[in-house]
Amino acid sequence: MTIEVMKFKEYRSGSLIGFFDLWVPKMGLEIFGCSMHKKGAQTWINLPSREWKDDSGETKYLSIMRLRNEEHFKAFKKAALDAALQYCSVNNINLSGAPQPAAASQASVDAPPSADWSSGEDEGLPF
């Protein structure tokens, strides 16, 4: 399964590097408002979420989407992270320092074979 980064907007704050949108052509799926983070040697993405406050006023975040199968969810997030990293590389976005100018471009990656998306027709997805 190919995942593409359609757009990436740098926005640096704490571990946050920026926000990006994903396109999954095989499913016709667009996902808006993902975020990319880096702290030390670790880089990760978060899928869209919304902020809310609990009864004590503490800020919490609620995921807007998920895949129910945990293995598929991890594989999807890894493929999305790989696409975001490739996009940053192609567009000269420095992950560890000050923002650099980026050229407009698209980057895409295929989900890793170990993701086991292919358990049958249409890559085994339930839709």
DSSP summary: helix tally = 1
Order of helices and strands: EEEEEEHE
Instruction: Classify the beta-strand content into a percent band.
Output: 35-45%
| Main sheet: strands, sense, barrel | 5 strands, antiparallel
pLDDT < 50 stretches: 102-122
Given helix and strand content, the structural type is alpha+beta
Overall spatial form = globular
Mean residue pLDDT: 81
Rg over CA atoms, rounded to whole Å, is 16 Å
Q: Helical content, roughly?
A: 10-25%
The number of strands is 7
The termini sit apart by 14 Å
Question: How is the topology of this model organized?
Answer:
Layout: E1 2-13, E2 16-24, E3 29-39, E4 42-46, E5 49-53, E6 59-63, H1 70-90, E7 107-110
Antiparallel strand pairs: 1-2, 1-7, 2-3, 3-4, 5-6
Descriptive overview:
The chain has 127 residues and is an alpha+beta fold. The chain has a domain at 1-36 and 68-95. It has one helix at residues 70-90, and strands at residues 2-13, 16-24, 29-39, 42-46, 49-53, 59-63, 107-110. Strands 4-3-2-1-7 form a 5-stranded antiparallel β-sheet. A two-stranded antiparallel sheet has the order 5-6. A hairpin with a 2-residue loop joins strand 1 and strand 2 (16-24). The protein is globular. Mean pLDDT is 81; it is low at 102-122.
